[in-house]
C-alpha cells in the first residue's frame, strides 16, 4: 500500500499529482515514527539523552502535523503548507544533527531518515505555487 497512490485517488488530484509532495508525505510519516522510536530507545540509554529525546519528540510531532496537512487536497493552504514544510526541514536537520552526535545505531538511523525527510520537504516546498 502506498500513500502516494491514496493521494492520487483523491478527486482533486486526478488532473495533477504533485510528486514531490507525495514523496514528502511518505517520508514524513516514516520520519515521525522513526523519531518516536529513537526517543524511546534514548530513554533506555545509560547516559543523559535529554536533548536528543526532546528533539526527536519535537521532530516527530512536526512531521506528523506536516504529513496531515500535506494529505489534504480540498481547499487551498499552499502558503501555510509551504511554511510548514520549510519548518519541518529545519526541525529534521536539527534532530539529525543531534542524533549524529551519538554512536547508537538507533540515532544513526534516525539521523539518516531525518536528512532524507528534510530534503523531500524542501523539494515539496519548492514545488508549491508561489502566492499571487
From TrEMBL:
<dbReference type="InterPro" id="IPR005560">
    <property type="entry name" value="Csp_YhjQ"/>
</dbReference>
<dbReference type="Pfam" id="PF03860">
    <property type="entry name" value="Csp"/>
</dbReference>
<protein>
    <submittedName>
        <fullName>Four-helix bundle copper-binding protein</fullName>
    </submittedName>
</protein>
<dbReference type="InterPro" id="IPR044543">
    <property type="entry name" value="YHJQ-like"/>
</dbReference>
Amino acid at each position: 500500500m502506498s500513500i502516494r497512490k491514496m493521494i492520487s485517488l483523491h478527486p482533486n488530484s486526478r488532473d495533477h499529482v504533485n510528486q514531490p509532495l507525495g514523496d514528502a508525505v511518505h517520508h514524513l510519516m516514516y520520519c515521525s515514527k522513526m523519531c518516536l522510536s529513537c526517543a524511546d530507545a534514548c530513554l533506555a540509554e545509560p547516559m543523559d539523552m535529554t536533548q536528543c529525546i526532546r528533539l526527536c519528540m519535537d521532530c516527530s510531532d512536526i512531521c506528523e502535523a506536516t504529513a496531515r496537512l500535506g494529505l489534504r487536497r480540498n481547499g487551498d493552504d499552499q502558503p501555510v503548507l509551504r511554511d510548514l514544510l520549510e519548518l519541518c526541514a529545519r526541525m529534521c536537520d536539527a534532530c539529525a544533527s543531534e542524533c549524529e552526535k551519538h554512536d547508537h545505531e538507533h540515532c544513526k538511523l534516525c539521523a539518516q531518515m531525518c536528512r532524507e525527510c528534510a530534503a523531500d520537504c524542501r523539494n515539496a516546498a519548492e514545488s508549491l505555487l508561489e502566492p499571487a
